[in-house]
Amino acid sequence: MKEYIVMESFYKALEKDRIQPFYQPQFKSNGFDIVSAEALCRWVRSDGSLILPVDFPPLTEESGEICMLDWFIIDRVCSFLAEMLFMNERPVPVSVNLSRRHVEEMNAAEHLCTIVDAYRLNHDLIEVEITETCDAD
User: Fold this and answer.
1) Are 33 and 27 in contact (CB under 8 A)?
2) How many helices (H) and strands (E) does the chain have?
3) Could you read off the pLDDT of 52-108 as tens digits, one per residue?
């Protein structure tokens, strides 16, 4: 039952942009220069508190909606990078996660390129990691 409630809320959260990427910066060894970032998926409640990632990505993985979540986050990351460029700021490469389910998609790489191209971004700005669940079954 909890799973049903979370998933029902998940769709509403997507519609209301409550699910967002948070950026974890990666620095050079001097500690000052940001060289890249990792996009972490976070669900922000209306009161500003967070639903922990342990509480919803596993459910989206089980239901198959993880692909929708991944593409949603990738779109938001690309939008953010495009906005940085528009503001004449120097973007850094951002690592995004893809579920192992994307490996099964015939056109996952093409879909990713389509999103990146839609924002007129250099492909070097998006790095892809397959999530740790890729060897689980």
Assistant:
1) yes
2) 4, 5
3) 777 777 777 777 788 888 999 999 999 999 999 999 999 999 999 888 877 777 788
Which structure tokens are listed for 97? 């996660």
Backbone angles phi, psi at 31, to 5 degrees: 80, 5
Contacts 24+ apart (CB under 8 A), 9-13: 10/43, 10/56, 10/59, 10/60, 10/65, 13/43
Closest alpha carbon to 120 in 81, 74, 76, 69? 81
DSSP bridge partners of 21: 41
Distance (Å, rounded) from C-alpha 44 to C-alpha 9?
Answer: 12
The reported pTM is 0.86
b/e for 42-51, b at 16 or more Cβ within 10 A?
bbbeeeeeeb
**In this structure, are residues 85 and 63 in contact, taking their beta carbons and an 8 Å threshold?**
no
CA distance 66 to 105: 12
Partners of residue 126 on adjacent β-strands: 94
